[in-house]
Design a protein that fits this description.
By secondary structure, this protein is mainly alpha-helical. Helices cover 53% and strands 11% of the residues. A two-stranded antiparallel sheet has the order 1-2. The model has no long low-confidence stretch (mean pLDDT 89).
Length: 108
Amino acid sequence: MEDKDVIRSLAALAQPVRLQVFRALVVAGADGLTPGMLQERLGTPAATLSFHLKELTQAGLLTQERASRRLIYRAAYAHMADLVTYLTQNCCEGAACAVEADSAACKC
C-alpha cells in the first residue's frame, strides 16, 4: 500500500458520519447494505449519505454493486486489512509485541 492511499483512507475515516457508515458496513458483513438501510440505521439525510458513500468509495474503503435497481455497499475488507497491516508493519521496531499478524485479517 502506498502512502497516498493510506492518507486518502485515513482522511476519509476522519469524519464522524463516514466513520459511522464504514463501521455499519463492517458489521453488516458480506451482505452489505443499501443506502436506504444505512439512512434508516444512521438517521442521515439521503444527500449527505450519498456524499459520504462517494468519499469512502473513492478512498477504496467501500465497494459498490448494482443489484437490479438497488445499490449495495460493502466494506472493502482487503483494503481495510492492508491499511491495518501498513499501520502496524514496523510495530515495536521488530521486537515481539502485542499485535498479532493475523489480527488485521477479517474472517468474513
